[in-house]
Amino acid sequence: MQEFAGQVAVITGGASGVGRSLAFALGRRGARVVAADVDRNAMDALERDASAMGIGLLTRRCDVTAGADCEALAGYAMNEHGRIDMVFANAGIGAGEAGPMWTYSMKDWQWCFGVNVWGVVNTINAFLPRLVAQERKSHFTVTGSGNGAFVVLPDAPIYTATKAAVQAITENLYYQSVAMKSPVSVHALFPGPHVVDTGLFDSDRVRPESFDTGTPKSSGIRSVEDMRRLMQQHGMELKTTHPDEVAEAAVAGILADTFWICPRTEESLAKFLARVESIRTLQNPVAASVG
Question: Would 281 be classed as within a structural domain?
């Protein structure tokens, strides 16, 4: 289980959720991990837990909305380890929007696009030149979402729009890397196949003051358990996936060198195919459901 011995992995959004699970999955396989985040408490907890498991790990604060922070993170990783083998553009948040989109605060739009879209762009700009310059095999993985990339769930329009943009960026990066015969393999990671039990629903815990809307969270959902209870009230069951499962899928995808890292179910595939059929036949779309 030392597939990544001696390799260096940098993870944005690395202190919680999928990022934290990636840190442990890679660390157990011998990688030296640099986990970047804005949540200092989560980074401290990650350091303690990694140390207890004998995993070599460094943490660094990085606000991915700031290009200078991403540049500093890339420089830090190179200075500490002299190489970078894997980068995970994983940082992401949910704005917690609910109701008609014309009622949303512009601060919600700006914050979510800043982290989810510009965060990916800034990470690409900081790391791709360094990865290419190494002239050896490396991996750049972007965490997307089927909500936006494959289907459009109407309950979170801001988040959905950011993830649609993220998939376009990721896929274009892949095409350009292939055309250039770049040694950098690009991967699109889709956490799932079910709703992943992370802190995404409580993103307000890391919301900067500059994006504070001054009003309570619109959706009223702050955890997967909140969503589960809400769905139960409507007679529906919410199936979930643990972040560790997503991390294992990412590891398998990197080892197999596949672009699509996309665990899915027959139900999720059917929702995607229904959308494709709507486009093919020019029939009015029907909204997919969470689950």
Answer: no
Q: How far apart are CA 75 and CA 143, in angstroms?
A: 22
Q: What is the DSSP string of 48-60?
A: HHHHHTT--EEEE
pTM of the entire predicted model = 0.94
The pLDDT tens digits along the chain (291 residues) read 679 999 999 999 999 999 999 999 999 999 999 999 999 999 999 999 999 999 989 999 999 999 999 999 999 999 999 999 999 999 999 998 988 999 999 999 999 999 999 999 999 999 999 999 999 999 999 999 999 999 998 889 999 999 999 999 999 999 999 999 999 999 999 999 988 887 777 788 889 999 988 876 656 666 666 566 655 665 666 678 899 999 999 999 999 999 999 999 999 999 999 999 999 999 999 988 765
Residue 222 identity (one-letter amino acid) = R
Q: Which domain holds residue 132?
A: 8-266
Query: Count of H helices and E strands in the chain?
Result: 10, 9
Q: Residue 220 maps to which CATH number?
A: 3.40.50.720
Q: Rounded CA gap, 43 and 34, in Å?
A: 11
C-alpha to C-alpha distance for 78 and 133, rounded to whole angstroms: 12
Coil, strand or helix: which one is 238?
coil
Rg for the chain, CA atoms, rounded: 19
Count of domains forming the chain: 1
175/259 Cα distance (integer angstroms) = 10
243-256 helix and 17-28 helix, angle to the nearest 10 degrees: 50
